[in-house]
Amino acid sequence: MGGKSIVWVPFTSVITSWMIKIDDIRSPEGSFGFCNPVCYGAVHTGYGLISGPNDKVMKMLEIAAVDPDCIGLEELPTITFVINGVDFEFTGNDYAKRSNEMGNEQCLPTFAPQPNDIFDRDVWILGAAFIRKLFTIFDMDNKRLGFVPSNPWY
After folding, report:
1. How far apart are the C-alpha atoms of 110 and 46, rounded to whole Å?
2. Cys-Cys link to 122, which of 39, 72, 91, 116 (CB 3.0-4.6 A)?
């Protein structure tokens, strides 16, 4: 996403007030075909991961396989969420969660399957792993969310 202008995204009234439409999810190889004809994203500040329907997340993890020893994160493919016609790109460093336990650095993917497909439709939970890369504006009065790329200080 170029520039620093606000990308406004209207909510849908599907499940929650912070539900938005996702146009597409893709890798450099092309669209995963997940949002055909449509899927939704629940923007959730209290959830740490990006999760979706089990079968779809497992397909995504086949190409976005994060090494537990944090090797090769720079070579992982960019995963792009297209929202309101705008590309929001996530590199391997963006979607790998690093932790350091007892002096050992480990990495885990921030893409996770939802337990038991908790929604009855194609809904992705866009938690902290998604919004930490963006300045996010929750505009309830106008029933929309605003996204602006944040500075990469994390």
Report:
1. 14
2. 39
| Joined tokens for residue 6 | 């606000």
Sequence-distant contacts of 107-110: CB under 8 A, at least 24 apart:
107/66, 107/67, 107/68, 107/69, 107/70, 107/73, 108/66, 108/68, 109/61, 109/64, 109/65, 109/66, 110/48, 110/49, 110/50
Distance from C-alpha of 33 to C-alpha of 40, rounded to nearest angstrom: 14
Nearest to 145 by CA among 134, 129, 133: 134
ω before 149 within 30° of 0 (cis)? no
Report the distance separating Cα 48 and Cα 4, nearest Å.
Answer: 25
Q: Output the tens digit of pLDDT for each of the chain's 154 residues.
A: 445 689 999 988 655 668 999 999 999 999 999 998 888 999 988 888 999 988 899 999 999 999 999 999 999 999 999 999 999 999 999 999 998 877 888 999 999 988 665 666 678 999 999 998 888 999 988 989 999 877 654 3
